[in-house]
Amino acid sequence: MKKNKLGGLSSYLGTLGALVILCVVLSIASKNFLTYSNIMSVLKQTTFTALLSTGMLLCLITAGIDLSVGANATFCACMCGMLVKGGMTNPVILILIALVAGTIIGLINGTLLTRLHLPHPFVSTLGMKNFLWGASLLVTGSQMISGFPEGVMALGSATIGGFPVSFIVVVIIYILMHILLTRTALGRSIYCAGGNMEATRLSGIDAANVLTFCYAVSGFMAAIAGIVSIGRSGICNGANAIQPYDTDAIASCVIGGASFMGGKGTMFGTIIGALVIATLRNGFTLLSVDSAVQNMVLGLVIIGAVLLDVTREAMAAKARRKEAGAKA
Amino acid sequence: MKRKLLAALLAGAVAVSMVACGGSGSSSDASSTPAPAADASTGEAAAPAGGSGEYKIDVICKTLSSEYWSYIQAGAKAYEKEHPGVTVDVKGPPSETSYDEQMNMIQTDLGSGAYDGYIIAPLQADTVATLIKDTDKPIMALDSAINSDKVISFIGTGNEEAAKAGAAAAVQAAKDAGWEEIKCIEIAGVQGDGTNTARMNGYIAGVNENGGEFLENEVHYANAVADLATNEMEGIMSSHPEGIAIICANNDDMALAAANAAAKAGLEGYKNTIFLGFDGQIPAAEAILEGKMTMSTAQNPYNMSYLAVETMVKYLNGEQVDPVVDSGYTIITKDNAQQHIDTLKGYSEN
């Protein structure tokens, strides 16, 4: 048991090391990197991806995927925008409606997968992404909407001594999700569902409910991300729905040790993954790197992370065979 | 053990890629001024020296991946070349819809405190207004205005004004071509888009005030795409077989597409029609030279960014600057198209 835990640690030790080295290199390359205000910028920019990654991680652990997270976040922001345009100013109601909308979208994603038996969620959530893109444009009349009440903006814009409140929320959510994943029966069921679906069913776990729960959480987190985005940008814009937020979220999870094969991934690794991406982007801007080069490097990092995932998988399999051999 | 090795390998790979990027970034800068090199090596020595005429200015574009924005980049860099004390960083997100990335760029650069002044071409003006709310550094808007009291100057061309001048020139050209009844139909861009509305208002004023008639009820929206503009032009020719004096479009692509559609149909009524575009980019200027379309209104992005950096430096030197700096426009016709092409090509070679 102890050995297992150590194995888990070393799996994201590499990612942590990459982040540290990245920071050291950037500190040397740019004197503006290691300043308080810049580090706060990085944290602010991590928030959105980090929130989307929580839901994405749950889906990845179950060997699924949720490609609609980015569009869902935009849609939730646009729902708020529509209400604000219609004269609604109560922040509590606005936030509640966004959260409910996001969660319902997640529930629908989960239901499509588990009750209507659509094949791999890649297809259904991709369809949902397109649907939400259109819906976002429709509810806002294809216009950018600003003038959100302070209460809605606070989550994304408020700071305590320069430290973004949104990142504090992220930390709390990550701790709660970590406890959920590692200390509860539901958490174990989620890992189980990703490992072997048939075994999960045979061991008496209601796999359909577990999966639906994961997609609903993903939708809920997307809604929070949507509210954060309103606070950060001061507006909502339906055209944002096709931005590659989902890829960033997937990349964060995979860099952090999650696998497309399911059954793997931790909250700690994922936040490191999200930080790596935000730090890279921040560094590119500080060093005025051409945006074409930025795209190439980010692409390479994603490919590298997947390559790492595959290699890790192969090594784990080899280690298992060795262990089995030693026992026999 | 192997895992640790792998971990170190990943870390190394990320580090190497970063170093590689840092290298390419500063090498491209180093060619223009010695200042950026100091940035990487000596650290503190590159701190902004206020008041002495040595400034570091940040230009954040809507994107860098289009012809128009490459001229913006060239103009800003030209100023840097001519003024050794001034360092200009030009950056931009991958596309004009990369809202989030531009937002992050602005946030990062404002937070870094590395620049003395910021020139921003906003993708979402309201977002930028939110981001710059708390800054004490001077901000100027480029190309599109930002509605904020933090913005000291807007440097750009009024789309409306430029379109109006283009329309006036088109009416004159139509008169010269022998049209007695000068009617104008617009093939427009995206409905509800601010630039599209401004250009349309300019066309309406320019045509109506110079003795023409802008058919406001017959505006055809073609989403700024050539393919749709062809369809719309075919529609116009069916409903007006007698011919229309001026077909104006929201951009060059659509004007050229409309002109091609008319040429293909070969209707007598459209032999002398004036096709008026907007932007005046190289392919359009070449088409004007070949007689495929008639004229185009060109904003001057190179001037725009040059003026923007100049205005910022003036402000930093404590001089008075205008709240609106007009970077001008040019009407491209057969007479000056070649010259225009040569100028544009000259920009990209620098």
Compact description:
Chain A is mostly helical.
Describe the structure.
The complex is a heterodimer of chains A (328) and B (350). Chain A has one domain: ABC transporter involved in vitamin B12 uptake, BtuC, CATH 1.10.3470. Chain A is built from 13 helices and 4 strands. Chain A has helices at 2-29, 36-61, 69-85, 91-114, 121-140, 150-157, 165-183, 185-195, 197-202, 207-233, 245-255, 267-286, 291-327; strands at 145-146, 159-160, 163-164, 235-236. In chain A, helix 3 packs across helix 10 (207-233). Residues 1-7 of chain A have low confidence and may be disordered. The termini of chain B are far apart. Chain B has helices at 2-30, 35-41, 67-82, 99-112, 125-131, 159-176, 194-208, 226-239, 252-265, 282-289, 301-316, 337-349, and strands at residues 55-60, 86-91, 117-120, 139-142, 151-156, 183-188, 213-214, 220-221, 246-249, 274-278, 295-299, 324-326, 329-332. Residues 1-13 and 15-50 of chain B have low confidence and may be disordered. In chain B, helix 3 packs across helix 11 (301-316), helix 8 (226-239) crosses helix 9 and helix 10 (282-289) packs antiparallel against helix 12. In chain B, the strands form 2 sheets. In chain B, strands 6, 7, 8, 9, 10, 11 and 13 form a 7-stranded mixed beta sheet that branches. The interface between A and B is large, with 67 and 59 residues.
